[in-house]
Input
Amino acid sequence: MLIDLAKPQNLNAYMELPAVIGRLGEKLGLDEAKKFKAALSSAVSTNPVLLTECEPGSVINAALIGHSLNLPPSPQLGYYYIVPYNNKKKNCKEGQFQIGYKGYIQLAMRSGYYLRLNVTEVKKGEFVKWNPLTEEIEVNFIENPVEREKAETVGYCGYFEYTNGFTKMIYWTIEQIRVHADKYSKAYSLENDKLLKSGKIPSGEMWKYSSFWYSDFDGMAKKTVLRQLLSKWGSMSVDMQVAFEEDIKTDYVPFAQAQITAGNVIENEAGSEVVEAAFEEKPAKRGRPKKETKKPVDKPQEEVETDDGITMPEWATE
Output
C-alpha cells in the first residue's frame, strides 16, 4: 500500500511502520533508535501540529539533526526546538530544526575552546557605558535577585573567555534586537509586537503570535546576542557550525517573504529554501584556536518510494 506523505499522518503511528523502524535501526542502531523514538514522541506530545499535521519524515529529519549534535529534543530543556513551517512548494507543513541559546552554550563548552561563556539581561539602571571600539561594557548589576528580576530589561550582554585568555563582549539594546528580528526573522514583526503589547489584538487572532519571538522574547534575544558574538569572534566547532547553519535556514529570511499561518506554523514564500542573511560575518582569526575542518551537513531530502511501496524521505533509504 502506498502511503502518501502529502497527507500528514500521526507521527507516532508513522514511527511504528516496519520500514521506518528498519531505516532508523540502520542509521542509529536498534537500541539507540528506540531511545530516539521515545524521546521524540515525548517532545512532540504537547504540540498537535507536529504530531498530526506535519509531514512526519521532516519531523524525524529535524530530530536527527539534534541527535547528531547530541542534544535532547525536550522543549523543557530548550536546547533546540522543532518548528512547524508551511512548505508552499510541497503544499504541506514540515518540521524544521531550530537551536535555542542553551544549545549554543552546550556546544560551545563541549568544544574545549571556552573557559567561560554567558549571556544575560541588562536591567534598567544597571547600564553605565559601552565602548564600541574596545567592546567593553561597564555595568552595575542589581545585587538583590528578586529586585533585579522585577526590573525592566533594557539590553543584553554576552561574554566569553578562551582557555588562552582571549576575551570578548557584546552589548545590544533591546531596541536593536527588535529591529534586527523585524528585519531578518520570518516569525516576528515589530509593528505586530507593538499591537500585541498594547492589547489591540482580538482574542481570535492570538494564535498568530505563538512564535518564540512573542512567547519567549528573552530566550530569542539571548540566542541572537550569542550568535552575533560567536559568529563574529568565536571559534566554532564542527557541531557549532552545523547548528548555526541549520538555525539560519529556519529562522532568518526577510519578514516580507513570510507570514504566520497557524499556531506556531510559519509560511515561507520561498518554499522553505535557504535564504542567506546579509548580517553573517566570518569569525575573526586573531587569538583563536585552530578551527576544525568542516564536515558536510546532511540536508532534508525529497521523498522516494521503497521496494515495499512506502513513500519515505530519502534519508531513510540511504
Q: What stands out?
A: Residues 1-8, 253-286, 294-302, 304-311 have pLDDT under 50 and may be disordered.
